[in-house]
Amino acid sequence: MSFKLLRLIFAFGGFLAITPWSVEEQDKSTCQKCYVWTFFAMTTSKCIYAMFNYKISENTRNCIILGAIEILLAIFNFYVMIVLNFLKKRQWSRLLNHLRILKNQEVTKKKTPYYLNFVILIFVYFVEYCFNLYRMFPYENWYFTIMTHVQHFLYFIYNFLLFTVATMLLKEYRSLNYYLSCYSKDKMSLLLIRKIAKEVHFLKRTVNIFDEISTWPLAVNIYFSIMITLRDLLFVIYDFGNIRGDVSASYYVMIVKFCFGTMSVVSWTLSLILLYNSVSEEFEKFWFKMLKLQWNFSNATPKEERQLYNLMGFIKENSPKFTAAGFFVISKTTILNILAAIVNFLIVAVQLSDG
Q1: Which residues are CB-neighbours of 25 under 8 A, at least 6 positions away?
Q2: What is the pLDDT of residues 176-197, one digit of tens each?
């Protein structure tokens, strides 16, 4: 992932009012501010319209899940459009400055175009969009249909932005690991460890800024994935048999919807969780290498031992950590917690339905 790709994503994000218009300038003009507020009002009005138009008398269980989905999307819109664009715009500037410095340290070049992955994902989204238009035609409410797809595209772009920045951070920790592996025990010195400690501290500050920006969207991602999965599973369990018409055709449509709809949402969440966890694991590998190289200073003086001890403690304190809105730390166990939440809800739903 390159800084050029980040420029491309910011161009799309600025149009969707979820990021600054460019990576160079974070201050918005009056017209741009009005545009952000207008876009926020349009997307949020769709969520409010959906919540007040679900028929509670028809299916209370589904109504609660669908209402929760719209509330999560409204929270997502408010945070990425209003909070980050107006209240935390300095965080964007600081993060981009840090990433720009990391970009200047890159020496490797990719043979494939930097925009290839982004174009492929845009194409996949376009296929999903065409399928949903075909499946939902004719439309009872054009505004609701259009804004629903705009909301999904907004959600997709922001997740790809988080994925891109997290990949850049993972690449930097891997480079640091490779940099450490190039030095033999005989070449290690306190001066070199001090240089490594500064780089680790800089990466930790970058991670903290990124975590402050992405913490709430990631939390919404997790709960949104849970609700989307529950919605489709409960539909298959209770409502699929009530479909009128060609059941076999509805079955294939449900499979395609699950692959393009549910799995696209869940896959983003799982990818981000595993990517964040990979950053932490890469630092652990780096830390174990540092512990092994520490034995090279067995003949050091007491003063050098104290300096080495302080530097090692400083490096350990700067281990990267990602959280979901400060509620819990992201790791592989988060995936198991998501599965447990889905299973527990299904058990309660089945028991209430049987009762």
Answers
A1: none
A2: 888 877 765 556 677 888 888 8
